[in-house]
Amino acid sequence: MLSAIDLHHTYAPGATPVLRGVNVAIAQGDFACIMGRSGSGKSTLLYALSTLLRPTSGQVLYQGRDVFGLSERQRNALRGSDLAMIFQMHHLLPALSALENVLTPFLARLRPVGAKAVARGMECLSRVGLADKARRLPGNLSGGEQQRVAIARALACSPKALFADEPTGSLDSGTGDKIMDLLLELNAEGLTVVMVTHQPDYAALANRVITIADGRVAQAS
Amino acid sequence: MNLATIPLRNLRRKLPRTLLSAAVFSLGIASVVALAHLSKVVGDSLERKMTAFGANVLVTPRTQSLSVGYGGLSLGDVSFDMRYLPVAETVAAVRAIPMKDTISVVAPKFALLTRVGGVPVGVVGVDFPSERGIKRYWQPRGDFPAGDDGVLAGSAAAAALSLDLGDAVTIEGRTFRVAGVLAPTGSEDDRVIFADIAAVQRLAGKENMAHFVEVAALCAGCPIDEITAQIQAALPEASITAMQHVVKQRMAAISFVKHLALSVSLVIMLTACAMIGLSVFSSVNERKNEIGVLRAVGFSKAGVFSLFCLEAVLTGMVAAVVGYVGGVLAAGIVPDILETGATSAMAFDLGEFLLTFAAVTALSAAAAAPPSLAAARLDPAAALVTL
Q1: Residues ≥6 apart with Cβ < 8 Å to A221
Q2: Residue after which a domain boundary falls, among B242, B273, B305
Q3: Residues B219, B319 within the same domain
Q4: ipTM field
């Protein structure tokens, strides 16, 4: 479904390369955890796989197509449909309610959001257990609830793959466990999940673990 | 929910900043609207006042071949081979041109060279009410003649003839009373005696005749050539001369007022635009993570650009409405405060309002474009690294 072929990346000319020839393949339905020390390049790999970061060289193939060979418009469309992302911090838009945050991917099409999209948004909020808090602003939600709204936002456009950059990193262990459970449930329903984490306990729950060290794949299962 | 929802909610969330931006922008727009109106009113007022300091069109008989002296007439030659203009018909013709509303004063003159007490002197017959209209700078000691038996002596003429208020002066056998003596003007007026035109015409046996007619036209944006052409068409037998130097002087003064207002307006609008631009720049810097997230959920560069631009445009729209209304109100008050002496009731003009609205909206978009472009060009990965 998704593969990285000989990815190299350097953030600035002359700087130390962050990725040095990474090759990984993610199959549909995988729950893949990317692990590694800080600065090892795991987040850079995640951003490259999610099409947000164009690598210095190498290819990212999604369903056989080189995503960086697509036009920017096509990549935007891909992010608004097949590929979704959540972050360590929830990064909801603070001025919008929980439901409106969930609906932002629909706005990316620069058209008014219709009733069908609103229904889908509510469905996603229900899926993460927050239908009753749809009108609340992010500031009035707990950290765990905010992350669940972010997951609902990621699910809004029915993606095929979800990229998660340390989604439990800023949560207490109890809340983090609940988020992890939710991601496992979504994976069980068929969603491909690629997650960067520092926590071996969570990595142990994944069916794939890719360890990155010094910009290279040190270990992959 | 639509694309405007995000900017609207952001503006509401940062309400004090939004209100401050809108207030400053509104103030700028109000100043520009008021200034534009004020410059027009003051310009018109200035022109009216300046028109009181002389005519700008001269009507003379076409066949006149005499050299220019007083008001374009050589007094030494007027008694020879002189042609005349019929006063009533000439005044009526000038007053009937298509641009008659611009005609402020029509002042006919009949000049007579004579001797008073053996001293050669020029006597100029004028219509005193009209003459006062174009020579507000006249400051007579005494009064203007009320009837046809009074004269107004120029300062040099009065001195040469030893004339003072109330003195009798005999001109061509008729006795007149000196009603007033002009303070020195530094012009030809100092050297002559002014009398009622009808009286002077009778003395010369040329009733209803004038040597020339001075016309003062109020010409804001001065189409003096057109006015001249219209008078010429109405008086084909006469020679019409626009006194371009007078017109140009007036226009220079009026242009100065208008250019000053325009320059100040430009500075105000540039400052307001810079403020809007800086506000959006600061917003972009504060919301880099938001930009990254928007790009991550599928927003294109154009989408991000639109969101930030819309914020400025929405602020600009509010400021345009408030600023225009404020400007209309201020335009009615400021002239009184400044004691310009100009009356200026500025009415709400829908066309002007729509023009202001469109211009301010476009300016807001232009001011917000550079920071919005920077937001759109922000590398989403770089924006997310700041997360």
Answers
A1: A208, A209, A210
A2: B242
A3: no
A4: 0.86
Chain A residues whose beta carbon lies within 8 Å of the beta carbon of residue B291:
none
- What is the number of structural domains in chain B? 2
- Could you tell me which residues come within 8 angstroms of residue A58 by beta carbon, excluding any fewer than 6 positions away? A4, A5, A6, A7, A8, A9, A19, A21, A22
The phi-psi region of residue A176 (left if phi > 0; otherwise alpha if psi is between -120 and 50; otherwise beta) is alpha
> How far apart are the C-alpha atoms of A90 and A73, rounded to whole Å?
25
For A4, the token pair is 């990285």
Indicate the angle between helix axes A98-107 and A143-155, nearest 10 degrees: 30
CA B261-B267-B273 angle, to 5 degrees, is 130
Separation between Cα atoms, residue A163 and residue A87, nearest integer Å:
8
Distance CA A4, CA A32 (A): 14
Residue span of the structural domain in which B67 resides: 56-242
In-domain check, residue B165: yes
CB atoms within 10 A of CB B319: 28
Taking the CA of residue A219 and the nearest CA in chain B, the distance in Å comes to 25
Residue identified by tokens 């002296």 is B69
Given CA atoms B168, B173, B174, B180 in this order, what sign does their dihedral have? negative
Task: Please tell me the distance from the alpha carbon of residue B29 to that of residue B9, in angstroms, as a whole number.
Answer: 25
Residue B86's closest CA among B230, B199, B206, B195?
B206
Partners of residue A192 on adjacent β-strands: A161
- Give the list of residues 6+ apart from residue B299 with CB closer than 8 angstroms, or none: A76, A80, A107, A108, B307
Instruction: Identify whether B247 is part of a domain.
Output: no
Residue B374 exposed, middle or buried by CB count within 10 Å (0-12, 13-18, 19+): middle
Tokens 């697509």 belong to residue: A70
The answer on B60 and B43 residing in a single domain is no
Chain B residues in contact with A103 by the CB 8 A cut-off are 1
Name B260's Cβ contacts closer than 8 Å, sequence gap at least 6. Answer: B39
Q: Are the Cβ atoms of B6 and A77 closer than 8 angstroms? A: no
Residue B387 to residue A91, Cβ atoms within 8 A: yes
On whether any CB of chain A is under 8 Å from the CB of B162, the answer is no
B15 near A CB under 8 A: no
pLDDT tens, residue order, chain B (387 aa) = 888 899 999 899 889 988 988 998 898 898 888 888 877 777 777 666 666 555 678 898 876 454 545 555 555 444 445 578 999 999 999 999 998 888 888 999 999 999 888 889 999 999 999 888 888 788 899 999 988 899 999 999 999 999 999 999 999 999 999 999 999 988 888 999 999 999 999 999 999 999 999 988 876 555 778 888 899 999 988 888 877 566 666 667 777 777 888 888 888 888 888 888 888 888 898 888 889 889 888 898 999 999 999 999 999 999 999 999 998 888 877 766 666 555 556 677 888 899 989 999 999 999 999 999 999 988 887 777 643
Question: Does a structural domain hold residue B12?
Answer: yes
Q: What does the DSSP 8-state code read for residue B73?
A: B
